[in-house]
Amino acid sequence: MTIRAAKATAHPNIALAKYWGKRADGVNQPAVPSLSVTLAGMATTTTVAFDPALTEDTFLLGGAPADEVAHGRVVKLLDRVRRAAGISTRARVESGNDFPTASGLASSASGFSALALAALSAAGLDTAPTQVSDLARRISVSAARSAFGGFVELPVGSPGEGDLAAIPIAPPEHLALRVVVAVTREGPKAVGSTDGMEHTVRTSPYFPAWVASAPALCARVREAILRRDLEALGVAAEESALAMHATSIAARPGLLYWTGGTVEALEEVRRLRARGLLAYATIDAGPHVKVMTTPEDEPRVTAALAEVPGVKRTIVASPGEGARLLDRT
């Protein structure tokens, strides 16, 4: 019996133009375009081993069996790979993050991107980034962007078509950017991104306005990146984040991902700007505040955020690479 295995790593991405909401046609495609930066400094590493001795798929996350929902999503991706490869072999999956899991730091994006690459490689299929991106997106939309490094856009797909991959628009070195993550809560968030998004789509009176306005915000983010205009990027990214969260806060009942530390960190970002530092905030579906700044201002921004009440610790990241293989047997 031959065990075919591969190990891959991927980084989380931070959406600068937010994705929030899916199309209603059931193909797991976004309702709005999004644009992100893939971050070095945080990583998921995943091993997939197709083993003929197994009678079912197993999934360990951080050394422990994953919950039923996470296990089901992994099996769904593996089933797609098995159908494409013409095999029925079950797999052993082991994955770990070097940053908090399921807490609003895009561990789903890095996790499913690494899983897609490792599974495709172990099954002997095409591992081109576009293939990795499309496969990962079918399970976690934001994971499509972590297949690529640097600045990456995920457009809105065409109705009736299932294929959709992200598109890289600039390499990591294109823009001198640092992202300081202010961690405001340890442990998983109470409401996952998928559930929160579905609740917002169903009940928020602001969601149609979000769908209408998000493409223009994404275009502003793209143009600022291409011009290497960090200030314009920060302004547009902050608007996108606050607009996204406004839709969930207005849901019925309201969904609030923030903590007191989130609000305190946002206030500190405004104080930093008033003192002449370049600092702009973005927040994904979680409580942590990610602050965009320059390499020169980063030490002062990091020091200031570390003193904010409610901030547990900080992580400094910069634009990084896309998903990549570490080993294959």
Question: Short description, anyone?
Answer:
It is built from nine helices and 14 strands.
In words, what does this structure look like?
It is a single chain. Helices cover 37% and strands 22% of the residues. By secondary structure, it is an alpha+beta fold. The chain has two domains: 4-171, Ribosomal Protein S5, domain 2 (2-Layer Sandwich); 178-319, Alpha-Beta Plaits (2-Layer Sandwich), CATH 3.30.70. The strands form two sheets. Strands 2, 3, 8, 9, 10, 11, 12 and 13 form an eight-stranded antiparallel β-sheet that branches. Strands 6-5-7-4-1-14 form a six-stranded mixed β-sheet. A hairpin with a 6-residue loop joins strand 11 (279-282) and strand 12 (289-293). Helix 1 packs parallel to helix 2 (107-122). The longest helix is centred in the middle third of the chain and has 20 residues, at 207-226. The protein is globular, with a radius of gyration of 19 Å. The model has no long low-confidence stretch (mean pLDDT 94).
List the topology elements.
Elements: E1 4-10, E2 13-17, E3 34-40, E4 44-50, E5 58-61, E6 64-65, H1 68-85, E7 91-97, H2 107-122, H3 129-137, H4 143-146, E8 151-154, E9 167-170, E10 178-183, H5 193-203, H6 207-226, H7 230-249, H8 260-274, E11 279-282, E12 289-293, H9 298-306, E13 313-319, E14 324-328
Parallel strand pairs: 5-7
Antiparallel strand pairs: 1-4, 1-14, 2-3, 3-8, 3-13, 4-7, 5-6, 8-9, 10-12, 10-13, 11-12
